[in-house]
Design a protein that fits this description.
The chain is an all-alpha fold. It is built from six helices and no strands. Helix 2 runs antiparallel to helix 3, helix 2 runs antiparallel to helix 5 and helix 2 packs antiparallel against helix 6. The two termini are 28 Å apart.
């Protein structure tokens, strides 16, 4: 089965899109960190005698570097690792709840309707997964807003840097390494934002599917046995098991530049 995943990823069936996008988003966010380091290291040396344009250019570069530093110190570490932690946390919870619901359903496969005590237990257990999935979407949307705001400020500081560099051909030549580094940061950020939006869609689809399944069980449209077989199948459990292990391995792997496994 093909899920559009890189060749180093194991086959995770229906989860292939989620895991591939999680991996790509993780690496794209790590690339922003690498590119911010590149901007911090961009040189700007004052000619002698110091020309009139230098102070404005130096101030604009310091402002851009300060924004890059805020990513390195705060936003980057908080967001990047979380992408994989979400997979690990949900996979672990899915495995535990699958076992519990499956055990109850095996003993009471014909239980039906929200008034049945065994269905009630199944609803309570499965409902926690439903809530977790939608909380994951909300959390990622908050991260998306944070990165978008950071990117907009970074774009403004890049524009100020370019305006200062446009004061003279000599200023533009002196600023060339910094301008290239800032452009790299913005390009990496655009890539990461696009992937993060795709990742939110993938998580939302999982949440919607879980919510629909729980609603059918609550309404008595399916028995507890059918619900367990469809929602917590052996295949789904195996896919989440592989996905969890893959995310754990990726989270602890050494990374090169930019954001690729070493």
């Amino acid at each position: 089965m093909s899920n559009g995943k890189p060749s180093d990823e194991p086959d995770m069936g229906g989860l292939g899109r989620l895991i591939s996008t999680s991996k790509a988003t993780f690496e794209a966010l790590a690339a922003i960190t690498d590119d911010c380091h590149g901007l911090l290291n961009a040189p700007l040396f004052p000619p002698s005698p110091k020309p009139g344009w230098f102070d404005d250019l130096d101030s604009a570069l310091d402002s851009a570097k300060a924004r890059a530093q805020s990513w390195i110190d705060d936003i980057g570490p908080n967001v990047t690792g979380e992408i994989l932690v979400l997979v690990v946390n949900h996979g672990t919870a899915f495995s535990a709840i699958s076992a519990q619901v499956g055990s109850i359903a095996a003993d009471h496969p014909d239980a039906r309707g929200a008034g049945d005590p065994f269905v009630q237990t199944g609803l309570e257990l499965s409902g926690s997964l439903d809530q977790s999935l939608h909380a994951t979407v909300a959390r990622l949307e908050t991260r998306l807003a944070t990165i978008t705001a950071w990117s907009e400020t970074m774009q403004a500081r890049d524009a100020a840097l370019r305006a200062a560099a446009d004061e003279s051909p000599d200023a533009k030549a002196a600023a060339a390494p910094a301008l290239a580094a800032a452009a790299q940061v913005l390009g990496s950020t655009d890539d990461a934002l696009k992937l993060l939006r795709e990742l939110i869609v993938a998580w939302r689809e999982l949440g919607d599917a879980m919510r629909d399944a729980v609603a059918e069980l609550r309404a008595g449209k399916v028995t507890l046995g059918t619900f367990a077989a469809d929602t917590f199948s052996a295949a789904a459990q195996a896919e989440w098991g592989v996905a969890t292990q893959f995310a754990q391995k990726l989270a602890t792997a050494p990374f090169g530049s930019p954001g690729r496994a070493a």
